[in-house]
Amino acid sequence: MTTEIGRDELKQRLDHPKKFVLLEALAPEGYRRAHLPGALNLPPGEERSLASELIPTKDTEVIVYCAGPECHASENAVRELAEMGYSRVRRYVGGKKDWMDAGLPVMSDEPRAA
Fold first, then answer.
1. Are the CB atoms for 78 and 37 separated by under 8 Å?
2. pLDDT tens string 88-113
3. What is the Cβ-side half-sphere exposure of residue 112, based on CA atoms within 13 angstroms?
4. 3-40 pLDDT, tens per residue?
5. What are the distances in angstroms from CA 106 to CA 86, 95, 96, 97?
6. Count of CA atoms in the C-beta half-sphere (13 A) of 59
7. What pLDDT digit, counting tens, does each position of 50-92 carry?
8. Is residue 55 part of a domain?
9. Which residues contact 20 (CB under 8 A, 6 or more apart)?
10. Which pLDDT value is given to residue 50?
11. Helix (H, G, I), strand (E, B), or coil: what is residue 103?
12. What 3-state class would DSSP assign to 13?
């Protein structure tokens, strides 16, 4: 069963890191534009091919998010990871929208305009 994590708890986890993997379940283009600090990209449908590269062990804590509450990519990724045997998977339902609406920092992999 998946448990959810809220913005405040996730922020606290990022501010005082304990070993976990944060995954953004969106297409690479969206990830490059803006992602939560420390997040790795797990594009929709790529769970089976990328999970072992991104998540060290099946009992590693994993937190997955996507665009926001209307987006189901994180829900699908969580389900897929659980089916693959990952036992500590949580979902940040508010996603990138909730995080950015709260004025919290994001990272970008796109070059800045000169």
1. no
2. 999 999 999 999 999 999 999 876 55
3. 3
4. 999 999 999 999 987 889 999 999 999 999 999 999 99
5. 27, 12, 9, 11
6. 0
7. 999 999 999 999 999 999 999 999 999 999 999 999 999 999 9
8. yes
9. 13, 60, 61, 62, 63
10. 97
11. coil
12. helix
The CA distance from 108 to 114, in Å, is 15
How buried is 8 (Cβ within 10 angstroms: 0-12 exposed, 13-18 middle, 19+ buried)? exposed
* Residue 63's CATH number: 3.40.250.10
Closest CA to 3 of 95, 78, 104: 78
- What the block records as the tokens of 5 is 């994590």
Domain membership flag for residue 67: yes
3-class DSSP state for residue 102?
Answer: coil
Q: What is the dihedral of CA 23, 2, 58, 29, to 10 degrees?
A: -20
What total of structural domains would you count in the chain?
A: 1
Domain assignment present for residue 113? The answer is no
